[in-house]
Design a protein that fits this description.
By secondary structure, the chain is of the alpha/beta class. Strands 14-13-12-7-2-1-16-15 form an 8-stranded parallel beta sheet. The protein has a 5-stranded antiparallel beta sheet with strand order 17-18-19-23-21. Helix 7 packs parallel to helix 8 and helix 10 packs antiparallel against helix 11. The longest helix is centred in the middle third of the chain and has 18 residues. The two termini are 47 Å apart.
């Protein structure tokens, strides 16, 4: 069945105020404009990241502003140029011009920072004839110095960045250092001239079983005399100059016609790759193995470190962007980041960008593991997968909010060079794992559309009002649900020709993915506006520390305070994650309290919160 449009007021957002507050309704009437645009904020160049609301977008799936670049200038058919708007694994036509056209759509929602999936030139298609897909996502780079022609030109990108900056919005690039596109092959599992439809995976070959100094195993012919290995103390150019024979594990080669496809030219030298076969996603192979066949760079090599620092310095200097999200951080050795991160930060500062924001993707669900990369690897910040994991447990697995409290109470584990856990980007779902609405539906297949909508709304409210930088995954503000992870969570915002997208229902609307979905009247879009407005009105919700006062072990109440140390501003938050009314005796909830957002409950001997609700209060009587 179709999900019906839901008026926010029907879910209690026509606010009821507690005793001690001004009885005027604090909800903004529909006809009154919500002033959330980023032009009202501190200038982007000096603004702390904690003041921002981020929007994560896949340009190919967002808006097609220039159909002339749909095939990227390549000839042939979709197996060559990668464009097929009917196939969920191929290019669909979105580009920089299309994103530029929709900047006001984002600014009106309150977005002040845009994070794009990688935009550099990719190998258009990869895979054998059975599983061939295209590089619409941007993670199969061949040329790190050019824009992918499917997305537009350098001038188109400059226009996008300039127009974003005019609106006081930051622009953040998604970058890769772990791998390039799949170009290198191995004779042992992909002999020259073999049928690409019958190519097996190349099993990972470890350093112990296949050391650098013998060929084909520890008892093989001696090679690379004098090479001392790749441990941090040996990562010098003199040592790596002794690594000349590359057939210690496999015999790598580049197929005819692809010898010089990578840019800069040094990337075509096979010495700069591990060449040990496919990752097993654990142990040594996680650092040295090919990421799903992609060519794994030898990031321990000093030339590779220097090369990538130069590459990404160029993009900062050329376009004056505001930050990097770094892909697959945990698959790169710590010593690389210890060199790369400070060099990039220093260069950005020299270019007049004092708050350049770098955060890494570390797909780990615990603060213990995540904090290793801020503390030891010296990556400035990491995506807070621990927050996402706790939210998933609460809204999909129906576990209690204690999971979130226990996660955030470990914030002291993070000891970055600058700042603390309040600068971590927090999110509910993404292009790899899937959408929060899908998680809710998957964990609660029999619940009503109205209940799913309320949970989605509650999850986003929790993300906006918790510590951290909220990240909206594109389409979530339009009620996108998706059918799963990866390609099934990468729907088109414009009219979709993909059958498995076009038949999707959406939360909060009668529309589907077969239609254009830039509806500024969608209740979730309007909720994001409201969340942003409230967040910006209260310093505690941007910069404040988060202190938990109550957290149920089962679905129920979560009560916390956020206090800004500079201004003393304090906000008290109550979330009820249960489908039933919940009560709790919490001293902080004893009045007078001024209600500022959500759905107020009732006071008495214990506080009573409506089902699937939240409420924010000032711990003082309202003025006026």
């Amino acid at each position: 069945m179709k999900f019906q449009r839901t008026n926010l007021a029907a879910f209690g957002l026509a606010l009821t105020l507690l005793s001690g507050c001004d009885q005027a309704d604090k909800a903004l009437p529909p006809e009154e404009p919500i002033t959330v645009r980023p032009e009202l904020l501190e200038p982007y160049i000096s603004r702390p990241i904690t003041d921002d609301v981020m929007y994560f977008v896949m340009p190919d799936r967002f808006n097609n502003g220039d159909p002339s670049n749909d095939t990227g200038g390549f000839g042939g058919d979709a197996t060559t140029h990668g464009f097929d708007p009917t196939h969920k694994g191929f290019f669909h036509g979105g580009d920089f011009k299309g994103l530029t056209e929709k900047l006001d759509y984002l600014a009106d929602m309150g977005v002040s920072a845009i994070w794009m999936t990688p935009i550099f030139k990719n190998k258009p298609v990869q895979g054998n004839p059975v599983n061939m897909t295209a590089a619409y996502h941007g993670y199969w780079i061949t040329d790190f110095t050019q824009i992918d022609p499917h997305l537009g030109t350098n001038d188109d990108l400059k226009t996008l960045v300039d127009e974003a900056h005019k609106r006081n919005m930051k622009v953040i690039f998604d970058i890769i250092t772990n791998h390039t596109a799949d170009v290198i092959k191995y004779e042992e599992c992909f002999p020259r001239g073999s049928d690409p439809a019958n190519v097996p995976l190349c099993d990972y070959r470890s350093k112990e079983a296949f050391p650098y100094t013998t060929k084909g195993g520890p008892d093989g012919e001696a090679i690379n005399a004098g090479f001392l290995g790749d441990d941090p103390e040996h990562q010098t150019k003199d040592n790596f100059d002794k690594l000349t024979a590359l057939d210690y594990a496999y015999t790598p080669y580049v197929p005819a016609g692809e010898e010089d496809v990578k840019v800069p030219a040094w990337l075509n030298d096979m010495r700069y790759y591990h060449n040990r076969g496919d990752s097993e996603w654990q142990g040594e192979s996680s650092l040295y193995g090919d990421f799903a066949g992609l060519d794994d760079l030898f990031t321990e090599h000093p030339d590779v470190k220097e090369g990538f620092i130069d590459i990404y310095k160029f993009w900062i200097s050329e376009f004056k962007i505001d930050g990097f999200r770094i892909d697959t951080v945990k698959h790169v050795n710590d010593s690389f980041w210890q060199t790369f991160a400070p060099a990039i930060t220093a260069h950005a500062e020299a270019e007049g960008i004092p708050n350049f924001y770098m955060f890494g993707e570390v797909y780990e669900p615990t603060p213990e593991r995540l904090s290793h990369f801020t503390n030891e690897a010296k990556v400035p910040f990491v995506l807070d997968f621990a927050f996402q994991s706790a939210a998933y447990q609460m809204f999909s697995e129906n576990k209690g909010p204690q999971a979130l409290a226990e996660t955030i109470e470990k914030d002291t584990l993070y000891q970055p060079v600058k700042g603390d856990a309040r600068s971590l980007p927090i999110f509910l779902g993404n292009h790899d794992m899937g959408r929060i609405a899908h998680f809710i539906r998957r964990g609660n297949p029999d619940e009503s559309p109205e209940a799913s909508f309320k949970k989605d709304l509650l999850a986003h409210a929790l993300m906006f009002y918790s510590r951290g930088v909220p990240v909206i995954y594109y389409g979530d503000e339009q009620g996108f649900i998706g059918d799963g992870h990866d390609q099934d969570a990468r729907e088109d915002m414009f009219v979709s020709q993909v059958a498995s997208y076009a038949d999707n229902d959406l939360l909060g609307t009668e529309k589907s993915s077969a239609e254009d979905n830039f509806d500024v009247d969608h209740p979730l879009y309007q909720a994001m506006q409201r969340f942003t407005m409230v967040k910006r009105a209260h310093p505690a919700l941007r910069h404040g520390k988060m202190t938990f006062l109550h957290a149920d072990s089962e679905p129920g109440l979560l009560v916390f305070e956020r206090t800004d140390e500079t201004t003393g501003d304090t906000v008290l938050a109550v979330f009820n994650t249960s489908a039933e009314v919940a009560t709790a005796s919490v001293p902080a909830l004893e009045g007078p309290l001024c209600f500022i957002d959500g759905t107020a409950g009732e006071t008495g001997e214990a506080y009573t919160a409506p089902a699937l609700s939240w409420a924010l209060f000032k711990p003082a009587a309202c003025e006026g």
